[in-house]
Specification:
It contains 44 helices and 18 strands. With 992 residues, the chain is of the alpha+beta class. Helix content is 59%, strand content 7%.
């Protein structure tokens, strides 16, 4: 495509970048579907020319055979997005019988293209977006699917409305599958029917999208995410929490213009933007004499009846003499798909005539006498009541007991909850098969090939009422909770056992686990003495921990862990269950409540319990968590013995990953303590060891954590090229991971290396990717750090005023949240910014305060930089104290040498060399700088080494002695280059 080589194409208020497939209006990104964007690019490419329908379809659909109506649908959406057709706006003209023509003037701009927008879901988070399987054959709904799909593209928000059993979910799933390509697989299907608590609607959607939320306020963070996405959000079975859903989707519609919403409900949501699609009943033949079977089978209602009658276990073939009776049945049932299935299931055993007669009698009692309800609701209730009454008692008992399940359930679950001990497996399977044959129970295909069942929401509501009236609801709820307590605990308490790749298969239990927890703790919300079963409640909460953490439901994990810990008894206090709950509380508190005392208390108690109970592996994991906590609050000195204890304990651990992690943690602590040589050895040892790809412990991937620290160590020890290489590597690895925290962590902590190396473009791009990530706004723990780095970047770009403002805000937040990891770096950047705008007195005070806080600075990572910047500020003052500045620089050099921080040493030497030149001591300056420069073997294009080389060249021209030294430097650099490329090149312990 020629247009793709044109950089940016501007027309009206729009700017289009074909190569990156981005279009903006007034600097704001416009959300277009892939097909609509393809159409626009093709038309703009041939602006002023008529492009035929055939060519457009060929170019856009790449020779696929498609209906021409698809082109019209996408063209309508494109024009709507452009605002085409207004009084003064005309971009695309329809040339009757020929095609379309782009008629607006265009301007081609050379230069950089528009950066591509965020893609979501990213990494393996896509595994969460699992669409239910589409029926292999859907009767009579193809036209509805096409209409709804077209409306969704153009209008963004459609609610499929109809009584229970009409087939709303079936149609919604078919629409979602039809639009997968349009939305690039970003189709999020949420079964709202499995959410009993309206307060969990938002959290469930966020979890399904793969978001990690570090706040108790989920809604604003979900909205921030959705504003950056183009996604199809399918919300199924909304009626039981309709108020919560209605409020949410109206806000999404208004504030997230690229999100398209498809909902199903028995009633309209009645909010702004909603386009209600009343799903019509399945069409049947008119009641007229002489109806033949062949003619009747041309109608979808009859087709469905015949198919379901044949699936009930007995052969069924529609005869001419039965056709009028079947037509009459379908008409009386108002074309409701589920009701027709109920009736058809009986026709195979009772015969068509008897089924028709019973329906007439049954509906006569329940339909015409209840005028207050919607007729079709009465119809379905009457059919359910009739079908329930015809069941044998074992089947009735099974159906009402099965209504306790939320969503899908297995045969094992059904056996333990719905059947008595006296029932053998054959009796159970006979009852289940009978309920399936009568369409009262649905068989759900499973990806792993195992059997799943589900009650449709309408059937479940009816059966749940029967369960409540039976007097056995509490006992069945207890069995339900006991089953899921047993199931979850059979998976084990290992918090790391449920990784994201396994979450989809385990997440099917989420609705049932939530329901069980609510039942167990239901009476404990006001008084723990009234809890139904303390032991069951504690066990269930502990078993649910891996599920909640695996699905990033941190707030729910925190809520139930805290609630369960409050119910501990003498029997459960000090048990493995308490250990699991304390660890869960520590993790969820760390990532949602900040670095508070609650998190530390939970960590300390968990460590105590792990030691007492002999839980060595869990103790290793909690030690890792303690290290994270200590580093986050800047207590580096205490973190080192924690890492050393982990290393000692890990030697005898069965899991080799902890030996690798212990090296990484030792490297991290030594890095922040200023021991860069020791840190580098530990990191290289860790990366040379064999470790699993996914080393997720305490909510964070430690390979990513190690890499972002290792890249800093590489730069500090003089390996700048490898540092940049590692930074790019970790960003690439982070993008493949499932957890948003890991993705964003890799971006934010790689920016310092880019800034140190002078790669402003890479730093800017990493920050852009960070803030454009859909999950960014839900990760407040990283916000202040990113704000500080953005401020530093602005100062580096010459926008000191703006940078200072950001840095002040960031430092205030970092202090308030006890996040000191990059606080000193932010202070250094603020001081340099203040000095750059002439506010040198304040700059000096900022640095002096930081130095005073750091003590003698001998073990502080950034201390050489604090001293160097202090010297630079002193030298810029009107009353320069060169002696004081020289003292600072000498001290900076000594500390940098002790730290093995060659990069800090070079920066201090460069500053001191400039002072020597200023003092007229050029030879000393050249010798001082040469000694440091020649120790480098790479990174000669980074900013400090370029600056050093430039000063050395200037000194060479000014002094013959310097020229001789420069020749030595050149020869040394040549030998180092041979070393890098030849056999004597140093060992590289880069992670594979």
């Amino acid at each position: 495509m020629n247009a793709s080589d044109a950089g940016i194409i501007a027309f009206g208020p729009f700017r289009l970048s074909p190569s990156t497939r981005v279009i903006e209006k007034g600097g704001v990104r416009v959300a277009l579907g892939d097909r609509a964007l393809d159409i626009l690019i093709v038309l703009v490419e041939q602006a002023g020319k008529v492009v035929s329908h055939r060519e457009l379809i060929s170019r856009v659909w790449r020779d696929l055979v498609v209906n021409p109506s698809n082109l019209r649908v996408h063209m309508t959406g494109l024009r709507k997005a452009l605002g085409d057709g207004g009084a003064d706006t005309r971009y695309i003209a329809n040339v009757a019988g020929q095609g379309y023509c782009f008629v607006a003037p265009i301007l081609r701009e050379a230069g950089p293209t528009l950066a591509p927008g965020p893609q979501y879901p990213c990494g393996t988070a896509r595994q969460r977006l699992v669409l239910p399987a589409m029926l292999k054959r859907m009767v009579g709904r193809d036209a509805a699917v096409r209409t709804i799909a077209a409306d969704l593209i153009t209008d963004r928000f459609v609610t499929i409305i109809g009584p229970g059993g009409m087939g709303k979910t079936t149609v919604a799933v078919a629409v979602a599958h039809a639009l997968r390509e349009e939305f690039g697989d970003a189709v999020c299907f949420v079964d709202i029917g499995a959410v009993a608590d309206p307060n969990l609607v938002v959290a469930t959607i966020a979890s399904t999208l793969g978001l990690t939320v570090q706040s108790s306020e989920v809604l604003p963070l979900l909205m921030q995410c959705l504003r950056s996405l183009r996604v199809l959000l399918v919300l199924d079975n909304c009626e039981h929490v309709i108020d919560a859903v209605a409020t949410l989707v109206e806000q999404i519609y208004k504030e997230a213009p690229a999100v398209h919403i498809l909902a199903t409900s028995r009633e309209a949501l009645r909010v702004e933007g909603e386009h209600a699609y009343w799903l019509p009943p399945l069409a049947g033949p008119p009641r007229e004499p002489g109806l033949t079977a062949a003619h009747a089978l041309t109608f979808p209602a009859i087709k469905l009846f015949v198919e379901r009658a044949g699936a009930s276990g007995r052969p069924f073939e529609l005869r001419d003499e039965d056709a009028p009776a079947v037509a009459d049945i379908c008409a009386r049932l108002d074309g409701i798909a589920l009701a027709i299935e109920f009736a058809a299931g009986r026709a195979g055993t009772l015969g068509v005539a008897m089924t028709a007669e019973l329906i007439v009698k049954r509906l006569g009692l329940h339909w015409h006498g209840r005028r207050t309800a919607i007729p079709r609701h009465q119809t379905l209730y009457a059919l359910l009541d009739w079908s329930y009454g015809l069941l044998a008692e074992p089947e009735r008992r099974a159906l009402r007991r099965l209504s306790i399940f939320v969503g899908t359930f297995t045969i094992a679950a059904a056996q333990q909850v719905a059947f008595d001990e006296s029932s053998d497996e054959s009796q159970m399977m006979t009852a289940l098969d009978s309920l399936v044959a009568k369409s009262l129970l649905s068989f759900v295909p499973s990806a792993d090939g195992t059997t799943r069942y589900r009650l449709l929401e309408t059937t479940r509501a009816f059966a749940l009422r029967q369960l409540e009236q039976s007097g056995e609801a509490q006992e069945i709820a207890r069995r339900h909770a006991q089953y899921y307590d047993s199931l979850l605990n059979s998976f084990g308490y290992d918090i790391d056992a449920l990784q994201i790749s396994r979450a989809p298969s385990r997440s099917e239990h989420l609705g049932n686990v939530r329901a069980s927890l609510e039942w167990c703790f239901g009476e404990a919300q006001t008084s723990s003495s009234n809890v139904r079963d303390r032991s069951l409640a504690v066990g269930l909460a502990a078993g649910a921990v891996p599920l909640f953490l695996g699905l990033s439901l941190l707030n729910e994990c925190h809520r139930w862990s805290l609630a369960a810990l409050a119910l501990l008894t003498d029997t459960t206090r000090g048990s493995t269950q308490e250990l699991v709950l304390q660890e869960a509380l520590a993790i969820s508190s760390t990532w949602t409540r900040g670095n508070g005392e609650g998190a530390r208390a939970a960590i300390d108690r968990a460590l105590e319990l792990a030691a007492t109970l002999g839980e060595s592996t869990r103790r290793l994991r909690i030690l890792v968590g303690l290290h994270i906590f200590l580093v986050r609050i800047g207590n580096i000195r205490e973190s080192l013995p924690v890492a050393e204890e982990l290393a000692r304990t890990a030697r005898d651990a069965s899991d080799p990953a902890y030996r690798v992690i212990s090296d990484w943690l030792l490297g991290s602590s030594n890095h922040f303590l200023g021991n860069q040589g020791i840190a580098r050895r530990h990191f290289e040892n860790g990366f040379m060891s064999v470790a699993p790809d996914n080393v997720e412990v305490f909510g964070l991937d430690h390979r990513v954590r190690a890499l972002v620290t290792f890249e800093r160590v590489l730069w500090l020890t003089g390996s700048a090229d490898r540092a940049i290489e590692t930074a790019k590597k970790v960003i690439g690895e982070g993008a493949k991971l499932s957890k948003a925290l890991d993705v964003c962590f890799s971006l934010v902590y790689s920016v310092p290396v880019f800034l140190w190396c002078g790669d402003v473009c890479a730093a800017r791009e990493a920050l852009r990717q960070l803030t454009a990530h859909p999950n960014w706004h839900a990760l407040p723990s990283l916000h202040a750090t990113a704000l500080a780095l953005q401020g530093e970047l602005l100062i580096d770009e010459g926008k000191a005023g703006d940078g200072i403002t950001l840095l002040r805000d960031a430092i205030r937040t970092l202090n308030g949240e006890r996040q000191t990891l990059l606080l000193t770096r932010a202070v250094c950047a603020l001081a340099e910014g203040l000095s750059a705008v002439g506010n040198r007195e304040e700059a000096l005070k900022v640095i002096d305060d930081a130095i005073a806080t750091a003590g003698d600075g001998s073990e502080v990572l950034e201390f050489p930089e604090l001293l160097r910047i202090r010297a630079n500020i002193i030298l810029s003052l009107p009353d320069t104290d060169e002696t004081e500045a020289e003292h600072c620089l000498d001290q900076a050099l000594r500390i940098a040498q002790r730290q093995s921080a060659l990069a800090w040493e070079l920066k201090a030497a460069l500053q001191l060399a400039r002072l020597r030149v200023r003092q007229g001591r050029s030879s000393d300056a050249h010798r001082l700088l040469t000694i440091r420069y020649e120790r480098f073997t790479e990174g000669f294009e980074t900013k400090d080494l370029r600056a050093a080389k430039l000063l050395l060249d200037e000194l060479q021209e000014a002094s013959p002695l310097a020229a001789h030294s420069s020749a030595l430097v050149s020869d040394s650099s040549h030998r180092r280059a041979i070393g890098r490329n030849g056999a004597s090149a140093p060992l590289r312990a880069m992670p594979d």
